[in-house]
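Dataset card, provenance and construction

Sequences and ligand SMILES were collected as paired inputs. For each pair, a complete structure of the chain with the small molecule in place was predicted and serialized as structure tokens. The example below shows a pair involving magnesium ion. Curators did not alter the output after generation; any descriptive sentences attached to a record were derived from the structure itself.
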Amino acid sequence: MVKIHLEHVTKLFGKVVAVDDVTLTINEKEFMVLLGPSGCGKTTTLRIIAGLEEPTEGEVYIDDEPVTYLPPKDRDIAMVFQNYALYPHMKVYDNIAFPLRLRKYPKEEIDKMVKEVAEMLRIEELLDRMPKQLSGGEQQRVALARALIRRPKAFLLDEPLSNLDAKLRVMMRAELKRLQKELGVTTVYVTHDQAEAMTMADRIAIMKDGKIQQVGSPADVFNKPVNLFVAGFIGSPPMNFIECTATEKGDQFLLDAGEFQLDVTCFKDIIKKNATSSELVLGIRPDNVMVDRERKEGLVAKATVYVIEPLGSETIIDLAIGDNIIKARTLEVVDLKMGDEVWVGFDMERLHIFDKKTEKAII
Ligand SMILES: Nc1ncnc2c1ncn2[C@@H]1O[C@H](COP(=O)(O)OP(=O)(O)OP(=O)(O)O)[C@@H](O)[C@H]1O
Ligand SMILES: [Mg+2]
């Protein structure tokens, strides 16, 4: 099977650094997602793997063989672009058969393979239609079938679900993930949608400004983000950030946020060892913010309910603590209303602390 490796890959377009010293291994049969905001270099990285772009520096390896200067057709990799174009004048059947006809496969074999892949993608009923008679999601699946039919060594997908409506998108996520596992084909999937990345990936590589920030399983990047960027990019609603200053009061080690102080004596040594100054950022996910009308143990800050966002099965409570607005998420019934005074606490086991200057995670 197939392993893909990028070794110190950099790509310049004039003065623009599209990809900046990327080293990344995509393991055999792995579903790797490249995730990051617009312009961070995802498509360029994918095109370098496909051979559509030559890196300015660095090497690309497929199964430990250097392929950096090998043309795309010799890499046996299928790429589905964001704007997958079907041939409008050909029936679905002929669209899917096209790559095999190009390679002069015998007719019977083509027929067998088209039917096989159509069954896999549940588009058997559509083979006689023209592309314009298909919905967006159906067209999407035909494009995937056309890419899959020649059993490529690896699959490169560039935001393949971006043209679909929200519901279909969620459905196709699951379908694609199932298909990838069934076929066991090494896959690199590009998206800027963190929810898509979290639900589909074996591992996620998070990019910003051409650089990889962190590579890890969805649980890893969610629970142990290495810096402020990753912490803020993964998770919805995003992690709350509160700027604070580390201060010592006797034996106590405190984070002073102005409106409240949080005792973090238990983290004193690690903060002292790793922080470049006393300026820190407290990070806490909405799920780990506790809210109560009464001041109970562990609740540290006084807050005002700013707004309540009911979402059916869960509720987001926006809380004003001085100038900071933070979000809490709860699955319980909320009997609070705008303007109510409450007490807020943070789950200390789920606390993140970042260095304000370097933006790196300390805890
Ligand atoms: N052919 C090109 N010529 C010049 N600059 C380019 C070219 N292709 C990409 N770039 C620049 O390189 C950077 C990375 O582009 P890339 O398309 O890889 O980003 P992306 O992460 O795929 O973004 P998006 O999510 O918007 O698709 C951007 O600043 C872009 O403007
Ligand atoms: Mg792109």
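Derived descriptions for this record:
The mean pLDDT is 94.
Residues 19 and 210 are 4 Å apart (CA to CA).
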